[in-house]
Amino acid sequence: MQITFFTFTLYLSLAICLIGLTYRGWTWLKLEVGPPAERFSCGQRAAAAAQGLLRTLLSRRIFAVLKVLVLDVGLQVRILKADLRRWCMHMSIFVGVLLLVLMHALDEPLTQALFPDYASTRNPFMFLRNLGGAMVLAGVGLALYRRVRIRGLRRTTRTGDRLAMGLLALIIFSGFVLEGLQIISAPIFDQMVEDYLGTDDPEDRAALKVYWAQDFGVAFSGLKASADAEVWAQGQDLHEESCAGCHSNPRAAFVSYPLARALQSMAGVLNGMRADVWMWYVHFLACFGGLAVLPFTKFFHLIATPLQLLVGAVENPSPAAGANQQTKRVLGLDACMHCGVCTLHCSVEPVFRIMGNPSILPSEKLASVKTLAAGRLRDPEALAAVAAGSFICTSCYRCTRVCPAGIDLQDLWSASRQSLVARGFTEPHIWVRERTAAEWAAGLIAPQASPFPALKNKPRHVNLVDQTETFSACVQCQTCTNVCPVVAAAGDSARDLDLTPQQIMNLLRLGAHEMAMGARMVWDCVTCYMCQEHCPQGVKVADVMYELRNRACERLPAVKQAVHGTPLCERSSDPGRKEDRS
Amino acid sequence: MKFAWFAGCKIPYFLPQYERASRAVLEALEVELVELEMNCCGYPVRHQSFEAFILSAARNSALAQARGLDILTPCKCCFGSLKQAEYWLRESDSLRAETNRQLDEEDLRWEGAKIRIRHLLSVMAEDVGIAKIRAKRKHVYDGLKVAAHYGCHALRPANVVRFDNPLAPTLFEKLVDATGAQSVDWPRRLDCCGSPLWEKNQALALELMRKKLEDALQAGAQVLCTACTYCQIQFDTVRAAELNAGGLEGRLPSILYPQLLGLCLGLSAESLGLADNRLDASLIRNYLG
Amino acid sequence: MQAPETTDCELTVIGTGMAGMAAALFAANRGLSTVQVGHSGGILFASGLLDLMGVHPVAAQKVWQDPWAAIDALVRDEPHHPYARIKKEDIRAAFDELLGFLNEAGLGYRRNGERNTQVLTSLGTVKPTYAVPETMWTGAQAFANKIPCLLVDFQGMREYSARQMAAIQKERWPALQTLRVVFPDTENVAEVYTGLMAQALESPATRKKLVERVRPHAQGVEAVGLPAIFGLYRTREILADLTNGIGVPVFEIPTLPVSVPGLRLKETFEFKLPAKGIRALRQQQVLEARPSSQGGFRLGIGDKAIEHYLHTRSIILASGRFLGKGLLAERKRIRETIFDLPVSQPVSRSGWHQKSFLDPRGHAFNRAGLEVDHCFRPLDAGGRPAFPALFAAGSILAHQDWVRMKCGSGVAIATAYAAVRACLEQK
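Structure tokens for the assembled complex are given below, as produced in the milestone run.
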């Protein structure tokens, strides 16, 4: 009955896992990141991938791949170079899990085949299992500590990270408890005696009990605390004869044995309710659960990340590069295990602290891009937020350089930004330039409709536009306009820029800065400070331009609401009005 | 002479030759650079959020202050941005308090203008000195006419950046002349290169660049010299991709100042990353005596 | 912040208007180590025309053709006017030196011997002035001889109308023709700006297009007048190109400030003074001024906070009046902004102005300023020099109403000359 259930759940979880893996593999060929122009069919991509694989296997590039396999996948040199503590953390989980999978989870098909005298309760296997478990637990503990202690990581820790750490900890911890319960289990002892002890003599059995109680930590109810040495010696003889072949001293289980000792006081109750059996369920169900969710959680990086590292080792100049580029991007999305290193090094992280849009941070943006690629990011508000975050990125390349998984993040950002632009999400400059003064004014008339009232009440530490001193000195002498390279290059300032710098200063004097915000002059200003430098009256013309843009960015959702009827739709419905960027 | 090196965001991916050439030249001039992991200078985000720009810039200054190092940046926009932040933080008590509250989370603090923010050109002209540069030369250019392009954000507003006389700067020409090359006088030398409007109003960005190039050609320049990441990207990368028509083909390539100087100091073209420039500027080597 | 460094110099000129620029030039020419401090732009408002003396007495609006005779009359009537403290040959020498400098820098000026020249302005009025930019000389000659002339204006240009000028001058100068053209590459442009047209003309291609538009209409005239837009840097080249292209002499007509000739003067001084050894501290001001224990002054200089100190043996204060912020009109009195020197002014505010804004006599407010001794040293309350080595020049001086007297440039240049010489004599 038990076996049936065990087998059933094993095959069930294995099946889920395999289906999941197949699905993920399929998405690598199916999903897209980038503008529509870079689209390839599933078949093209599969062919390109196969071609690339063959070319690599049959060329000297295979050595580059092998090198990555040893150094980056095996020894994880990329992590070591970046951060020793992180490497220790990752290495203990990696080695620990490897040890447990090979020597414990796969003991029947693998370990027994390699070591004919294998028994789970024999050394070194018992010791190694404890060692593996301890390493994983230590690694998870270290990971937890880092997630709590390091501010940048604490901020980006998500359910997925907690789930992975929790499940891993549950598997290992339940394993240790299970082993502890098995050590103290009198029912198991009785069962084993029934099966393996060659004698029915009650005295022999009692002697073996004494020996196992004292040296192996089994908790028998009603057994006297101390028996004489003779009985113990008799028990030892019997043990050597019947048990020692499969049982090493449990003290080698350096985690489970102390745990068993600690459970001794409650042993009566635990043995009575067969807690070991219950814990066995917990343990294997946790393990199978882990197996089943592997393709859908952070655990998937076990497969995707090494693959990414290997693929990354090959620069593929073949004609199929475009198709493979797409595949690599999607693989890259899966290879991210949200370790947060990119965000720790992100150049625009301080911007996130002020603007609060998580899509500014690479580790978070990647998740958004993943959702976007999967076609599940449909909420316009979320889309607009991803776009806004994407435009903050300065393409400094640092995240790509530090990524332990070797994901080409720079390429991902540039591709995803292009696809957002293709969907009509643009920088504020472009949106405002496309609007007419009338549209801008209409948006300002209904500011109450703003879905983000909080934006308007932010304290402004430097406030030029509202200060009379800013523009009171202006004598409208037009020097700013006369030295402005934008006015000079634009040709018709009234048509192309709406207002000249000096007219904008005049609008400020009239208290009409909100109208000035929509003028294209404000957005086409190159901030060269020529006007400010030449102003005979010391008016901070360029600084005012900057502030007007800031204020316009805050008002943008409200204006968009008025123009499009939705605060966040970026593309006007009028197809005739395309961006005039050529 | 020791500085905290501030490469800025665009150099590592888009203009690595600028970092290479700068490091090579600075090493030859015995300037030591210290690596601190700094963040964006705040310039790109200034049009969206003044506060985000200030925090970004202030964090960099605070990092350098904690190490007691002056900052050296090769990018004029980074330079201008860091100087701007310094100015506004001094101006506004509430801004300073709020910025320090943010920085305090990581035990950093902006403590007034404790360190100096320096641009590559100022360090070369003023800290290293023209005399030393001349003394270190192994070759000089003979007859090469160079249009020195100043770059806006280092030069203006002068009350904030204090780079040189904003109306009649001479610093860049002095440095060009120190290589033996001849700096030409061209009216648009202080104008914007157009880069700030890239991907925002491309047509205007190109028109601004075209006007400058025509003016420099009219003044007889054979090569344009820059000392700013954005300006060089505009005059080299963008121009190579977008603007080689209208009589400009192959004329007036742009070279980074450390590349121009590096050849005089006897550094190899390879160590200066000359091959990474999109437009072929190898003509300058014909003038190297 | 680093400890502010201190530097030394013999002379500090405070101010960047005409007087400040002239003082810096004269000092540099005499080998004084000189620093000039001030925000940029004071000289921007210059029209380009350099007046010496045009109107006296102001109340009678009497216009003089001979500025030297006007000065004689002025000094007789108003013995406190700054001109009364300078010899005429010094005034002439000052002009010669300054115009020589400008000429060498590519900004040529012409004079009508000892007499004033009549120049047609963009308002259609005629203004007497002493030294005329060479770009406007042909216009002055044309006006003097009333030769057939074509006045050109541009579509979209504000405050400039060739038809208005011709209409106003119809009686005196009937041979005027007018033409409105579109400035090259401004088709359909609502408004054009002189500074930007001047920049555009730096390019030969634009000049060629302009020539093509004007030449067909220049048949039968002997000169062509255009607004003052002949470039900022290549002015002589542009003048020659247009003259050759159109086939008759062309000339500029001064426009309202801020105008291209003002920009040209600014660029020339800003660029050429440092080349003469002037240390120009731009976008900075004197925030603190104290007599120093070693003699001279210690000046704290910066934008808003003191950025560095300067030890200077002497100072020429050319900080201007109200627009230049050398003087500040407070509620009850007019104050000098740097040293808080006594300002000659009416006893109470009620005496500042006449009842009518356009009163031909002008306002007492416009004659306020510093009292000085014969060496142009400002006086303290007791009538003695406030500091032994502090001099003043230009419009900050009392007892002159340069706007109405048409003596602004002359007073600026001549007093700067006298102040520098006094400073030098002290050395």
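The domain at 2-118 of chain B is CATH 1.20.1050.140 (Glutathione S-transferase Yfyf (Class Pi); Chain A, domain 2). The mean pLDDT of chain B is 95. Further analysis is deferred to the final report.
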